[in-house]
Amino acid sequence: xxxxxxxxxxxxxxxxxxxxxxxxxxxxxxxxxxxxxxxxxxxxxxxxxxxxxxxxxxxxxxxxxxxxxxxxxxxxxxxxxxxxxxxxxxxxxxxxxxxxxxxxxxxxxxxxxxxxxxxxxxxxxxxxxxxxxxxxxxxxxxxxxxxxxxxxxxxxxxxxxxxxxxxxxxxxxxxxxxxxxxxxxxxxxxxxxxxxxxxxxxxxxxxxxxxxxxxxxxxxxxxxxxxxxxxxxxxxxxxxxxxxxxxxxxxxxxxxxxxxxxxxxxxxxxxxxxxx
Amino acid sequence: xxxxxxxxxxxxxxxxxxxxxxxxxxxxxxxxxxxxxxxxxxxxxxxxxxxxxxxxxxxxxxxxxxxxxxxxxxxxxxxxxxxxxxxxxxxxxxxxxxxxxxxxxxxxxxxxxxxxxxxxxxxxxxxxxxxxxxxxxxxxxxxxxxxxxxxxxxxxxxxxxxxxxxxxxxxxxxxxxxxxxxxxxxxxxxxxxxxxxxxxxxxxxxxxxxxxxxxxxxxxxxxxxxxxxxxxxxxxxxxxxxxxxxxxxxxxxxxxxxxxxxxxxxxxxxxxxxxxxxxxxxxxxxxxxxxxxxxxxxxxxxxxxxxxxxxxxxxxxxxxxxxxxxxxxxxxxxxxxxxxxxxxxxxxxxxxxxxxxxxxxxxxxxxxxxxxxxxxxxxxxxxxxxxxxxxxxxxxxxxxxxxxxxxxxxxxxxxxxxxxxxxxxxxxxxxxxxxxxxxxxxxxxxx
Lengths: 276, 447
Fold this sequence. Notes:
Chain A: Pfam families: Trp_syntA. The structure holds two protein chains of two kinds. Chain A is an alpha/beta fold.
């Protein structure tokens, strides 16, 4: 038995976070680019070093994705999981993450979206979490383990607090699921490029991505970004030809871990996001 | 007897048990869960599937398992009759094989050639590897590096059966992390891989499906107790609860009976060193509602939602959550959940071993301890059924480490005072669980 299709909040142009996110995508498109969306785990490599890493990414980012470190991130691969463990070990909590974002938003105008598993939201309490996120200036939420029909309250509460929501589709999603997910997104739609977890895509072939995006665009009233396994300028460039946005995560964690110049890597990948 | 799989009023059509359960998983898996649900619902009423499962139960597992009146345990407690449902008699030594065979058969029907599983103590891994070998499926078992170290023999068994055992070093290197890795593998290889989940946890339809497969335990008790005592329903059923599959297997066939006809259902949670010490695996007594492995349930997680590593003397109960149907039972009073400590479980193990000649798994020993204690407060014509979920072979090395038995003891057991003199082992007191300090100590006083 499949549950009757229900969705949470309908897209609301009045949600300030959604407006800012859509504007960022629109600016990139005007410049002939897919929006560049780098990801970094909050508090990585340390709480004190994180702001400099984020600043370096923000010199290039159209949107910044910040992950709340989580003990059991089952949608993430080993790279982001290790970063989460390190950040948690350094004491970065949910509330601390939101404070880090608040500090970033005081220095930058670039929209910030938070990636979080649902349990930290439930633990803090959905309403309290949204209140804290709004206060921090969070523009959007990416919820990797929350299919939109699982919880009808989260999206409504987010909207109430001016925050847009992003749900994910995958190559395995049926047309019915794509429609359901696409219609529930108020920020952008996140298309996962492969079956798998973050950071594990092999090769540069787009595979099923174009067909998935074509389907998604039939229903989405928001921009469509692609992520998982986009690791360099070359893969970013390929994805940028078919997507409105390109999400890159594990590559930056690896760069930080190996002491590489994050700003330079970001500049290269941002350049790769240019449409032909 | 042709096999039928039961139908219960829970979960609802969205896979919810009240507020618990659901499908909190990456979108990639949702179509696979839909596919699994459909395949299961079809198989559930297909005579070809049911007949094959029944044949394997009978010829391969050795079902039905016995329902055994534990006369000396009963005499020791001096109250209600204590029956043991002997899931330890199953091939591979525990109730796990019931579910693994049923899921592996389902995998085969669905055309999946590869199965993945997670394991803590190794029982579910061995059962999965066994089912895979029997049905010719490729099998990968994820196991925490720490558990691999502790369960060397079971690791070898799995390898001997042809399974690949992959060590998990992320997180705490134990069962919850092995489960994360099994789910990640499934997300990656979802199109040709079947995930054999070992307990009544995970995203819908797993908790319902595993419950249905384990319900054979309770259904057999009804028939066996009718023959032995002239009633299908005992006064009390006690079973240990980690994720909760053996407990739901014996509870569910009784849980939805009307009030007044339903026996008391008691799940014993692993209280470890005590619920108030923070070193335990008692999700109902010491947890709060949260989401892990795709399901909302009572869960050991901190105020920020980070999962708190559990602790139990028994690796099989060492899981931070408890199945969503148990959560509903707890909230609605259909069942009770009581904490039993490591030390109490050790007492339960020794009692059962010395009085009945049955070495129970440390998991089951939690249930035995509580049952003996409860039996004392009941009348002789009343009946307790304890689900003896598995045998203790796998735990013998750990028990040997904990109990420094004196030389000569093995040839001259003290039958009157089982376990009363165990040097190197101090009986702690356990006030937080509501239990009296020690049933063995009480026996000494009575003697």
